[in-house]
Amino acid sequence: MNEPHQHHEAVAKRLKRAQGHLKTVVAMIENGRSCLDIAQQLHAVEKAIGQAKRTLIQDHLDHCLEETIGALPRDQRAPIDEFKEITKYL
């Protein structure tokens, strides 16, 4: 389970985007930009990190959980499918 998952590249891309937004926020603070502008950029940082986290968790569940439990009959899959679905609200 140490090999990169399908969406790790997408997670890294989102985190790099957040890193860029964060650098912008620091520069904005240092340059005395308005609190509204800074808050908007901080919101963008939070959204990028949140999306990266959700993508990572979903990818982990899809890859590792499915690998661990293996094939289940349809009538036994409901709890697993529901668990995977509810994690979208993290």
TrEMBL record:
Alphabetical list of InterPro entries matching this protein: Metal_Tscrpt_repr, Metal_Tscrpt_repr_sf
CDD domains xrefs: NreA-like_DUF156 (cd10154)
Pfam families associated with the record: Trns_repr_metal
Coiled-coil spans in chain: none
Protein name, as recorded: Metal-sensing transcriptional repressor
Similarity annotation: Belongs to the FrmR/RcnR family.
